[in-house]
UniProtKB/TrEMBL annotation:
Belongs to the class I-like SAM-binding methyltransferase superfamily. Trm1 family. This is tRNA (guanine(27)-N(2))-dimethyltransferase. GO terms for biological process: tRNA N2-guanine methylation. The keyword S-adenosyl-L-methionine applies. One of its GO terms (cellular component) is nucleolus. PANTHER family: N 2 ,N 2 -DIMETHYLGUANOSINE TRNA METHYLTRANSFERASE, TRMT1-LIKE PROTEIN. Residues 1-36 are annotated as: Disordered.
């Protein structure tokens, strides 16, 4: 019995040992399988191919001068054991030189059978399919190519996943960076200015754009309180945070984004700025989701929806669209539920198509035929407004353009919504085609009407078609032919920019006010424009000294007949004072061999000749004027001096004083006659010295 008992004990011990070995083998298999699992979160020891220094890699081989050692990263079938000097060169040239560096570590190339092999491969086929690969230091992925490994690491960094799961050390600090703009703090990820490499895109170059939109919202907040505003593409939430932080209880801010990572970052940025967050990811939302205004002070609603969905489900007073590229895909839903007299602002960043670099894309997105012209930036703004007008008209709504800005990186359009079929018809009638001469850059909108003209070239003021062979003009459009600015609204935006200390927006707004009035005078008052009579704006409900806001701001009701008649009268009075369409570049129309006058002096010459004139933000050397191109060239020629006279600035000024004393500006035909006489005198053999000597005398005689 004792022997049998001893045998039973031995059997049980052997069984336990075999079971223990089996458990160890299963655990090793599980650990090996977990190495291939990318989603593992607990820290593990790094792979042997990941080292800090070459000496650490050589320690794995245990190099000795008198013994042959195998390579720790290659199987024996691929690289046989050798002496230390040969193994050192092998590790340095084959593994270390082609490694990928990250945070002080080197991910060397590995030839071990780490990657899974297809089960139908046996024998030599298995080793032939086991190519070189890299082990990721962050996750457990194995990647064959070095370039793919570098891209794989960069994607981890862009997503903020820089904590290595293979290194048993303290986790590094967060890679997020905190930026501050207009007293608002936002957290951003690495490569935050590259939209293709990050979920939460933040562009510091768009600061001016954000300030202009804030000024427009601040003006609307003075007209009605509180207003519901939507930032349809939040990204980091910087724009909505600025609205809520500065305007406080005047606005109810909703920040939307369809990306889950962006929504998480928006919530963190709200807490960073000490704002309360109300998260809403349901699509069955209604207008009462925010509750009362007193309860939601300093509260921002964050939603995770598609922009078209949230604009279809809810109504807003102010909507801003800033997608990647074109915004035409969101215009129909934006105008579907926007409230009457609300504002829709959109930022288009597809400048390659709008600035006529990709004309086929402009035809596809906007349905417009365009070419590269000297006024291409204003052409881009009118293309966007035409698309906005058509989208609003489909919803029986008209628009009034408050602001149109086209700069290097974006095109910003701000419009006010006028509900009703009559405003929609009036806005749709302002979409017309443009006839553009490709020789002299003269342009004119086609006449209204559906009748076909036999010779459309007759509408152009120039005679290039008669003097040049072939077809000289092209038809561009359809484009918006109405005004691009509202002077009263721009003045109130300037007041808000001064009040909130937006220094970058103030110079641009001053230029826009002068451009809207088409004048060079810059007289800006610093007192509040809300105390003055504001009946200069058409279709806008604003305060006046004799009336209260309640008589105008009846939310959700139509205007009375008296208000409609007053608006029509203001509209007729303002149409006569609209700024002229498009502008001329002074360098484009300069005369060869002549020195042009200074731009500001040239503007004075045009103004003294009886034309409306101003500078334009679209082009620093552009001149917006109602003068025809022939008169523009005549005045430019008249006050230009020959290059060989030295091109002094005093020449044109004295010439202007002598001529303007008793003469008016001559017509286009007279200018052509003068050009012919000038050429005949030049051909008659007059030397430059004689011409220089007699030129002031001729000028004085004239």
């Amino acid at each position: 019995k004792e022997k049998s008992n001893n045998l039973d004990v031995k059997v049980t011990e052997s069984e336990l040992q075999t079971e223990g070995k089996g458990m160890e083998e299963e655990s090793t298999r599980e650990s090996d399988s977990n190495i291939l699992d990318v989603s593992s979160d607990y820290p593990r020891e790094k792979h042997i191919s990941i080292q800090r220094h070459l000496a650490d890699l050589e320690k794995l081989a245990d190099l000795k001068e008198d013994e042959k050692k195998p390579c720790p990263l290659c199987p024996e079938e691929k690289f046989k054991a050798c002496y230390s000097h040969k193994l050192h060169r092998h590790l340095q040239n084959l593994h270390w030189k082609v490694s990928v560096e990250f945070e002080g570590y080197r991910m060397c190339i590995c030839h071990l059978p780490c990657r899974p092999v297809k089960p139908n491969l046996i024998g030599d086929q298995t080793f032939s399919k086991m190519g070189a690969h890299y082990h990721c230091i962050i996750c457990s992925a194995t990647i064959t190519r070095r370039t793919d490994m570098i891209g794989h690491i960069n994607r981890h960094v862009n997503k903020g996943e820089t904590e290595s799961r293979f290194i048993t050390v303290a986790a590094p600090k967060s890679s997020r960076e905190v930026l501050k703009e207009s007293a608002t703090d936002v957290q951003v990820l690495p490569n935050y200015s590259t939209p293709q490499k990050t979920d939460s895109y933040f562009n510091p170059k768009m600061k001016l754009n954000r300030q202009l939109i804030f000024c427009a919202l601040a003006v609307l907040a003075e007209e009605r309180k509180p207003i519901e505003c939507l930032d349809a593409f939040g990204a980091t939430g910087i724009m909505g945070l600025q609205w809520a932080k500065h305007l406080r209880s005047s606005v109810k801010v909703t920040i939307n984004d369809c990306n889950e990572n962006s929504v998480t970052m928006i919530q963190e940025n709200c807490h960073l700025n000490k704002m309360k967050v109300k998260l809403n990811t349901k699509e069955d939302d209604n207008d009462d989701a925010m509750g009362d205004g007193e309860e939601n002070t300093d509260t921002i609603e964050v939603t995770k929806m598609d922009a078209n969905v949230i604009m279809h489900l809810r109504s807003f007073d102010f909507i801003h669209l800033d997608p990647f590229g074109t915004s035409v895909n969101y215009l129909d839903s934006a105008f579907r539920n926007v409230r009457n007299l609300g504002i829709v602002s959109l930022t288009s960043t597809d400048i390659s198509s709008l600035y006529a670099k990709a004309q086929h894309v402009a035809l596809r997105h906007y349905g417009c035929n365009i070419v590269r012209t000297e006024y291409y930036k204003e052409l881009a703004a009118r293309i966007v407004i035409a698309a906005v007008t058509r989208a609003a008209a489909r919803c029986n709504k008209g628009i009034e353009v408050l602001l149109a800005v086209a700069l290097e990186h974006f095109v910003l359009v701000v419009v006010r919504v006028l509900r009703g079929p009559s405003p929609a018809d009036d806005s749709a009638k302002k979409i017309r085609y443009l006839i553009h001469c490709q020789w002299c850059e003269e342009r004119v909108f086609q006449k209204e009407g559906n009748m076909v003209e036999e010779n459309p070239y007759q509408q152009l003021p120039c005679d290039c078609h008669g003097s040049m062979p072939g077809k000289t003009a092209v038809v561009l459009g359809p484009l918006w032919s109405g005004p691009l600015f509202n002077t009263g609204f721009l003045r109130r935006m300037l007041f808000e920019a001064v009040q909130y200390g937006l220094d970058e927006a103030q110079p641009l707004l001053k230029t826009l006010v002068c451009e809207a009035d088409c004048t060079t005078l810059k007289h800006f008052s610093t007192h509040s424009p809300y105390d003055e009579n504001k009946q200069e704006e058409c279709g806008v409900y604003i305060k006046t000294p004799n009336t209260s806001a309640e008589s105008y701001l009846v939310h959700g009701k139509r205007k009375s007949d008296e208000v409609i008649r007053n608006a029509a009268k203001r509209q007729k009075s303002e149409n006569s004072a609209e700024h002229p369409a498009f502008y001329y570049n002074i360098h484009r129309h300069s005369i060869k061999g002549m020195n042009m006058p200074k731009l500001n002096k040239f503007l004075n010459y045009l103004s003294e000749a009886g034309y409306r004139v101003s500078r334009t933000h679209f082009d620093p050397m552009g001149v917006r004027t109602n003068a025809p191109l022939a008169q523009f060239k005549t005045i430019l020629m008249k006050y230009s001096t020959p290059t060989y006279m030295g091109g002094q600035a005093e020449g044109p000024v004295h010439l202007a004083e002598d001529v303007q004393a008793g003469e008016q500006v001559q017509a286009a035909a007279d200018s052509k006659a003068e050009d012919a006489e000038f050429l005949e005198d030049d051909k008659s053999g007059v030397s430059p010295a004689t011409f220089t000597k007699d030129y002031p005398t001729h000028c004085a005689a004239d």
